[in-house]
Amino acid sequence: MGLTSKVIFIISVSAIALMAKSAASYFSEGSVKANKGLYSESIEDFTKAIELRPNDSYIYHKRGVSYSRIGDQAKAIEDLTRAIELNPHDSFAFTNRAMSYARIQQYEKAIEDYTLAIGVYPSNALAYNYRGLAYRELGEHAKAIADFTKAIEINPSYAYAYNNRGETYGIMGNRISARQDAGKACKMGYCEYLTVMENEDNQR
Protein backbone atom coordinates (compact mmCIF):
# COMPACT_ATOMS: atom_id res chain seq x y z
CA MET A 1 0.00 0.00 0.00
CA GLY A 2 1.46 3.36 -1.07
CA LEU A 3 1.73 6.42 1.16
CA THR A 4 -1.25 8.12 -0.50
CA SER A 5 -3.42 5.03 -0.09
CA LYS A 6 -2.41 4.74 3.56
CA VAL A 7 -3.34 8.37 4.18
CA ILE A 8 -6.71 7.94 2.47
CA PHE A 9 -7.36 4.75 4.47
CA ILE A 10 -6.48 6.45 7.77
CA ILE A 11 -8.68 9.45 6.94
CA SER A 12 -11.58 7.15 5.98
CA VAL A 13 -11.29 5.13 9.19
CA SER A 14 -11.11 8.33 11.23
CA ALA A 15 -14.16 9.74 9.47
CA ILE A 16 -16.16 6.59 10.16
CA ALA A 17 -15.13 6.65 13.82
CA LEU A 18 -16.04 10.34 14.10
CA MET A 19 -19.43 9.67 12.48
CA ALA A 20 -20.22 6.85 14.90
CA LYS A 21 -19.09 8.94 17.85
CA SER A 22 -21.17 11.89 16.69
CA ALA A 23 -24.31 9.75 16.42
CA ALA A 24 -23.76 8.45 19.94
CA SER A 25 -23.09 11.96 21.18
CA TYR A 26 -26.26 13.37 19.62
CA PHE A 27 -28.25 10.46 21.03
CA SER A 28 -26.80 10.98 24.50
CA GLU A 29 -27.50 14.72 24.41
CA GLY A 30 -31.04 14.09 23.17
CA SER A 31 -31.68 11.59 25.95
CA VAL A 32 -30.48 14.05 28.60
CA LYS A 33 -32.77 16.75 27.21
CA ALA A 34 -35.73 14.36 27.05
CA ASN A 35 -35.17 13.39 30.68
CA LYS A 36 -35.32 17.09 31.57
CA GLY A 37 -38.60 17.51 29.68
CA LEU A 38 -36.97 19.44 26.82
CA TYR A 39 -38.67 17.32 24.19
CA SER A 40 -38.49 19.68 21.21
CA GLU A 41 -34.76 20.15 21.75
CA SER A 42 -34.29 16.39 22.15
CA ILE A 43 -36.01 15.81 18.81
CA GLU A 44 -33.39 17.98 17.11
CA ASP A 45 -30.58 15.86 18.57
CA PHE A 46 -32.29 12.56 17.79
CA THR A 47 -32.84 13.72 14.21
CA LYS A 48 -29.12 14.47 13.82
CA ALA A 49 -28.33 11.05 15.28
CA ILE A 50 -30.69 9.38 12.80
CA GLU A 51 -29.01 11.19 9.90
CA LEU A 52 -25.73 9.58 10.94
CA ARG A 53 -27.17 6.22 11.98
CA PRO A 54 -30.39 5.71 9.97
CA ASN A 55 -30.95 2.06 10.92
CA ASP A 56 -30.79 2.41 14.69
CA SER A 57 -34.21 1.39 15.99
CA TYR A 58 -33.73 2.85 19.46
CA ILE A 59 -33.07 6.37 18.20
CA TYR A 60 -36.37 6.26 16.29
CA HIS A 61 -38.00 4.90 19.44
CA LYS A 62 -36.68 7.74 21.58
CA ARG A 63 -37.61 10.42 19.03
CA GLY A 64 -41.07 8.92 18.74
CA VAL A 65 -41.57 9.20 22.49
CA SER A 66 -40.45 12.84 22.39
CA TYR A 67 -42.91 13.58 19.56
CA SER A 68 -45.65 11.98 21.63
CA ARG A 69 -44.73 14.14 24.63
CA ILE A 70 -45.17 17.35 22.61
CA GLY A 71 -48.53 16.12 21.31
CA ASP A 72 -47.53 15.20 17.75
CA GLN A 73 -48.95 11.69 17.78
CA ALA A 74 -48.80 11.27 13.99
CA LYS A 75 -45.03 11.70 13.94
CA ALA A 76 -44.72 9.64 17.10
CA ILE A 77 -46.57 6.74 15.48
CA GLU A 78 -44.45 7.09 12.33
CA ASP A 79 -41.20 6.92 14.28
CA LEU A 80 -42.33 4.10 16.54
CA THR A 81 -43.50 2.14 13.52
CA ARG A 82 -40.06 2.55 11.98
CA ALA A 83 -38.48 1.43 15.28
CA ILE A 84 -40.66 -1.69 15.26
CA GLU A 85 -39.77 -2.42 11.62
CA LEU A 86 -36.08 -2.29 12.55
CA ASN A 87 -36.54 -4.24 15.79
CA PRO A 88 -39.82 -6.18 16.06
CA HIS A 89 -38.71 -7.55 19.45
CA ASP A 90 -38.87 -4.18 21.22
CA SER A 91 -41.88 -4.62 23.51
CA PHE A 92 -41.75 -1.03 24.71
CA ALA A 93 -41.83 0.38 21.17
CA PHE A 94 -45.19 -1.38 20.77
CA THR A 95 -46.22 -0.05 24.20
CA ASN A 96 -45.33 3.53 23.35
CA ARG A 97 -47.01 3.35 19.94
CA ALA A 98 -50.11 2.05 21.71
CA MET A 99 -50.00 5.05 24.05
CA SER A 100 -49.92 7.39 21.07
CA TYR A 101 -52.96 5.64 19.59
CA ALA A 102 -54.73 5.95 22.94
CA ARG A 103 -53.95 9.67 23.10
CA ILE A 104 -55.87 10.17 19.85
CA GLN A 105 -58.64 7.89 21.14
CA GLN A 106 -57.90 5.02 18.76
CA TYR A 107 -58.38 2.52 21.55
CA GLU A 108 -58.82 -0.57 19.40
CA LYS A 109 -55.44 0.02 17.73
CA ALA A 110 -53.94 0.74 21.13
CA ILE A 111 -55.21 -2.58 22.46
CA GLU A 112 -53.74 -4.39 19.45
CA ASP A 113 -50.32 -2.87 20.14
CA TYR A 114 -50.45 -3.51 23.89
CA THR A 115 -51.28 -7.13 23.09
CA LEU A 116 -48.31 -7.35 20.70
CA ALA A 117 -46.10 -5.81 23.40
CA ILE A 118 -47.22 -8.47 25.88
CA GLY A 119 -46.62 -11.18 23.30
CA VAL A 120 -43.01 -10.04 22.93
CA TYR A 121 -42.49 -9.56 26.67
CA PRO A 122 -45.13 -11.25 28.86
CA SER A 123 -43.88 -9.48 32.01
CA ASN A 124 -44.59 -6.02 30.60
CA ALA A 125 -46.68 -4.68 33.50
CA LEU A 126 -46.89 -1.27 31.82
CA ALA A 127 -48.62 -2.75 28.79
CA TYR A 128 -51.14 -4.63 30.95
CA ASN A 129 -51.95 -1.50 32.94
CA TYR A 130 -52.45 0.73 29.93
CA ARG A 131 -54.34 -1.92 28.00
CA GLY A 132 -56.65 -1.98 31.01
CA LEU A 133 -57.18 1.75 30.64
CA ALA A 134 -57.98 1.29 26.94
CA TYR A 135 -60.47 -1.45 27.74
CA ARG A 136 -62.07 0.82 30.35
CA GLU A 137 -62.47 3.59 27.78
CA LEU A 138 -64.38 1.12 25.63
CA GLY A 139 -66.58 0.13 28.57
CA GLU A 140 -65.07 -3.36 28.88
CA HIS A 141 -64.63 -3.18 32.64
CA ALA A 142 -64.12 -6.87 33.35
CA LYS A 143 -61.21 -7.00 30.90
CA ALA A 144 -59.82 -3.82 32.42
CA ILE A 145 -59.93 -5.34 35.92
CA ALA A 146 -58.19 -8.47 34.66
CA ASP A 147 -55.40 -6.42 33.09
CA PHE A 148 -54.87 -4.22 36.15
CA THR A 149 -54.77 -7.37 38.28
CA LYS A 150 -52.14 -8.93 36.01
CA ALA A 151 -50.06 -5.75 36.15
CA ILE A 152 -50.18 -5.91 39.95
CA GLU A 153 -49.21 -9.60 39.95
CA ILE A 154 -46.14 -8.74 37.87
CA ASN A 155 -45.30 -5.66 39.93
CA PRO A 156 -46.89 -5.66 43.40
CA SER A 157 -45.58 -2.11 43.98
CA TYR A 158 -47.38 -0.68 40.94
CA ALA A 159 -49.41 2.04 42.69
CA TYR A 160 -50.93 3.39 39.47
CA ALA A 161 -52.35 -0.05 38.61
CA TYR A 162 -53.97 -0.28 42.07
CA ASN A 163 -55.40 3.21 41.56
CA ASN A 164 -56.77 2.31 38.14
CA ARG A 165 -58.29 -0.94 39.33
CA GLY A 166 -59.88 0.88 42.26
CA GLU A 167 -61.33 3.53 39.98
CA THR A 168 -62.71 0.85 37.68
CA TYR A 169 -64.32 -0.93 40.64
CA GLY A 170 -65.85 2.44 41.52
CA ILE A 171 -67.28 2.82 38.03
CA MET A 172 -68.77 -0.66 38.39
CA GLY A 173 -70.37 0.33 41.71
CA ASN A 174 -68.15 -1.81 43.93
CA ARG A 175 -67.09 0.87 46.40
CA ILE A 176 -65.65 -1.57 48.95
CA SER A 177 -63.09 -2.97 46.49
CA ALA A 178 -62.60 0.51 45.06
CA ARG A 179 -61.65 1.94 48.45
CA GLN A 180 -59.38 -0.99 49.24
CA ASP A 181 -57.40 -0.51 46.04
CA ALA A 182 -57.40 3.27 46.32
CA GLY A 183 -56.07 2.93 49.87
CA LYS A 184 -53.27 0.61 48.78
CA ALA A 185 -52.32 3.00 45.98
CA CYS A 186 -52.24 5.91 48.40
CA LYS A 187 -49.98 4.04 50.84
CA MET A 188 -47.56 3.71 47.92
CA GLY A 189 -47.76 7.45 47.29
CA TYR A 190 -50.47 7.65 44.61
CA CYS A 191 -53.62 9.10 46.20
CA GLU A 192 -55.54 10.39 43.18
CA TYR A 193 -58.61 8.15 43.33
CA LEU A 194 -58.72 7.96 47.13
CA THR A 195 -58.90 11.78 47.17
CA VAL A 196 -61.79 11.64 44.69
CA MET A 197 -63.62 9.14 46.86
CA GLU A 198 -63.10 11.18 50.01
CA ASN A 199 -64.35 14.31 48.27
CA GLU A 200 -67.44 12.42 47.12
CA ASP A 201 -68.05 11.21 50.69
CA ASN A 202 -67.75 14.75 52.05
CA GLN A 203 -70.34 16.02 49.57
CA ARG A 204 -72.95 13.50 50.66
Outline the structure in words:
By secondary structure, the protein is mainly alpha-helical. It has a domain at 157-204. The chain is 81% helix and 0% strand. Helix 1 (3-35) runs antiparallel to helix 2 (39-52) and helix 7 (125-137) runs antiparallel to helix 8. The longest helix is centred in the N-terminal third of the chain and has 33 residues, at 3-35. The N and C termini lie far apart (90 Å).
Percent of residues in helices comes to over 70%
> Which parts are unreliable, with pLDDT below 50 for 5 consecutive residues or more?
3-11
How many strands appear in the DSSP assignment? 0
The radius of gyration is 22 Å
What is the general shape? elongated
Into which percentage range does the β-strand content fall? Answer: under 5%
Number of helical regions:
11
Instruction: Kindly report the average pLDDT value.
Output: 92
- Give the helix/strand class: mainly alpha
- Would you list the SSEs in sequence order as H and E? HHHHHHHHHHH
Largest sheet descriptor: none
Looking at this protein, list some descriptive labels.
204 residues; mainly alpha; 11 helices; 81% helix; elongated; disordered N terminus
Short recap of the structure:
With 204 residues, the chain is an all-alpha fold. It contains 11 helices and no strands.
